[in-house]
Write a structure and sequence with these properties.
4 helices, four-stranded antiparallel beta sheet, about 40% strand, alpha+beta, elongated
């Protein structure tokens, strides 16, 4: 029996890029999500629409409006650039800044840049320059 070729097919956000080892009797495939994540998923779950993304879809339904992380409060979500979501944030100092959602969530960026400037200044003073 010839196996159906599923590579290249797309279901929701998931594009099948390769076959994966079976999990028990279930055929699995390697998928790449629109967000860039790769995930091994049972083919049945994809075809039935039970799984639509690597998991990012569920996260993306959440709204971050008004939430604050460090000094940055989210005003609104701006449009996506490629597969990356961006948020329009307002810093405690009043500056607005567009930041990648992921970066904001991880707290990798804590301010519009004013914090870094301030800390840099303090470090310089401590070093006696
Ligand atoms: Zn994804
Ligand atoms: Zn700031």
């Amino acid at each position: 029996m010839r196996r159906e070729t599923l590579i290249g097919l797309k279901f929701n956000r998931l594009t099948i890029i390769a076959d994966a080892p079976y999990q028990g009797v279930d055929r699995c495939v390697v998928c790449i999500c629109d967000c860039g994540n790769e995930k091994i998923i049972r083919i049945g779950n994809i075809k039935s629409g039970h799984i639509k993304s690597c998991g990012c879809l569920r996260l993306e339904r959440d709204s971050y409006d008004g939430q604050k992380n460090n000094m940055l409060t989210v005003l609104e979500e701006t449009k996506m650039i490629g597969v990356i979501r961006y948020l329009m944030c307002i810093c405690d100092c009043g500056n607005k800044k567009i930041i990648g959602l992921d970066v904001w969530k991880r707290g990798a960026v804590k301010s519009c840049g004013c914090l870094v400037k301030k800390m840099g200044y303090i470090i310089k003073r401590k070093q006696g320059r």
